[in-house]
Amino acid sequence: MKKRIQEFVKNVGLFTFMVFILIFEITQTVQSQTLPYTFKNNSTYADNEIYIGLVGKFPGMGDVWMNMLSSQLKTMSYSDNTIPGPAWANTPDGKNKYAAIFYKLSDISNKTINIPQGLFGCRIFISFKSPMYIYFHQTGGYGGAKLQTGCAANDVYRWEVVGVTWGDAGLWTNTSRVDAYQYPMGLEVTGYSGGMTGTYAQSYNAKVNSGTSPNVNAKIGELLTHQSILDLWTKSVDPSYYGCKTIKTHSMDNQPIIEQPSKIPDFKPGATYGDYFAAYIDDIWSTYRNKDIYLNIGDRGTWRGRVTGDRFDFYDPIDNSQATIYSKPTTTNAIEGAGALATTQATAPSQKYDEDLMIQAQVCAAINRHAIYTNAGVGEVQYNTDETRYFKYAPYNQYVNFFHKSQISYNSKTYAFAYDDVGDHSSTIQCTFPTKVLVVIGGYGSDNGPVANAGIDQSVLDTNKNGSESITLDASKSTDKAGTIVDYVWKEGNTQIATGVKPVSYTHLAGDSQMTLP
Fold first, then answer.
1. Which residues lie across from 409 on neighbouring strands?
2. According to the model, what pLDDT value does residue 150 have?
3. Model confidence over 456-491: pLDDT tens digits?
4. Burial profile 412-440: b = 16 or more Cβ within 10 angstroms, e = fewer
5. What is the pTM assigned to this prediction?
6. If you write DSSP's letter for every residue of 423-471 in order, what string do you get?
């Protein structure tokens, strides 16, 4: 009996070992298909001033984040919230602690992380000078990537985001200007197009190992330097949009970003421009109570629409399927793709559910671009995906128009509002079989020399009324990613008044004066 028990124990041990090996091999197979995302620093920040963090979802793991040193995914846990947050913010649990998921670019090997196939709903956050505050909820998911003035933890830092989904239909990746522009970005994808033959993994390996050269070499991003974009803003938009160029309440560098108009006080309901699109929306709704609109939406052909009350119904003449906007949208609804332009009374999953949201996206895009012409003739087809019709007549979303300008965005593509993908005008790159991705921090602007920073504007009172006062000159926040700045020259107009990073205070006559650090 003693011998038989020993043999049973030995057999159990062997069986357990075999199961362990099998599980290990399955895990390796799931995680073996990876895609390198390489970061190129084309910014004015040094590698050790740039922080990278990744959150997303992965099958079998749920909500995840990535250890950037090993490219290993880890399941989000409330216990990961260990970093104290800023005094003006707080977390839902009242502890004001955030997850430690950011890594300096200088610490990431070869500036490359490996994205596993299957990762979806992913956001790669890129922040400057400091990591961001990302909070992991007790019930799953994360929060913190917001810009609301006065309450959001991350309105202190300059940061950008890259979206990633790599599923069994391929890769979708993009930069975003939906909420704000904070710093130039670029994105390049190399890989193959084509259909599936077997599983995705089988198709991927067959394509990549086919011996042919990649036939996808896609690129998007800003073409100008950060300062050039900021300078061009007020030269390109009406005064109603000047407030979009704003310095956040707790800004670390005291320099502006450019926000979507719906995010600033001037465009809030009841504010000066809160009804910016109201007259145009009223015109659309009143015009098409009395006649039909014929709206061509691209691959789905031309739909016929008619308003009854405030309900806008559209019909596909091919199969007579119906799509509905259930109420008249507001300016905020139009800019954000929300409310009446993101609401259906249909139940999912169903064709009506999908087509309601589809037609709402089309009309939202048309309002932002002013692509519906209410003076169109009876029966005239209007082409909603034709970019030559966009931004011809006021009002239109000047923020969207600005970032689609060819001098700013490569091929005029960017993601400047929620439904910018209508007509394929967004910055999303799709590649069925991707082999590598390059994230260009700083975009494609060519000016990477010294960046002069003379600090904020100063107002000094002539307290003793003698006609002159002293101004403190300080260039210590100036930067040069390539090396050390060795020479500082201060000018008033064309006249040199001082040299050095912190020259002695300069006395000038009372009145407006502009001193520059060229």
1. 222
2. 45
3. 556 566 666 676 767 778 887 676 544 457 678 777
4. ebbbbbbbbebbebbbbbbbbbbbebbbb
5. 0.80
6. TT-SS-EEESEEEEEEEEETTT----S-B----S------TT-SSEEEE
